[in-house]
Amino acid sequence: MSLSQEKIVSNTKKYFETGTKLGFMNEELMQFLGEAIIKAPASSMSDFHNAFEGGLIDHLLRVTANAVKINETLPEILKVDKNSLVKTCFLHQIGKANLYTPCTSEWHRKNQGKMYEFNEDLISMRVGERSIYYATSHGIKFTEEEYVAILNFDKNDDKMSEYHNSMIGELLKMGSIIAIKEAQSTK
Question: Does 80 have pLDDT greater than 80?
Fold first, then answer.
């Protein structure tokens, strides 16, 4: 699967306009992310999800839509602030900007579905760590709940993060699982 240029442009516009309107996307971060986030895939392998140009923003928008829908169904006592949830969903994987480079091996692309390789020029960090680093380095502030949700998002081997996640973090994970399943079902 791939996205048309029109869909990439409309997703990008929605992503940046929504972030700006809600006050968590500033000019400094937008300039830094630039074309790298617009072109970024959400994953490197075609059998996973969104391993194509524009895949990351498409995925972030889907994660957000799912997380917001789930939040709306919760009892009042469990609901989280919608703007905080959108902010967390939009920024949780911006660390993937510049993370991947196109795979140049036709054999790997055709036989293994390896569409992208990891950028070996980057210092090793989890995506959540890099996302927090990018955002805070460019003037974005997080609440403790938002910070923990992003930082813990990709920590599958850490029991503390699993059992002591924020509600925003739980909604983020649920929204992401559904977005991935949606993408995989359209293949």
Answer: yes
User: CA 51 to CA 96: how far, in whole Å?
Assistant: 12
In Å, the largest CA–CA distance within the chain is: 53
Q: Provide Rg for the chain, Cα atoms.
A: 16
Query: How many angstroms separate the CA atoms of 157 and 41, rounded?
Result: 24
b/e string for 109-127 if b means 16 or more Cβ within 10 A? eeeeebbbeeeeeeeeeeb
Residue 184: pLDDT band (50, 70, 90) is confident
12 vs 119: CA distance, rounded Å: 23
Q: In the structure, what pLDDT confidence band is assigned to residue 159 with cuts at 50, 70 and 90?
A: low
pTM of the model: 0.92
Nearest-5° angle of CA 28, CA 176, CA 155?
Answer: 80
Report phi then psi at 118, rounded to 5: -75, 140
Say which amino acid occupies 51. Answer: A
CA distance linking residue 36 with residue 100, whole number of Å: 10
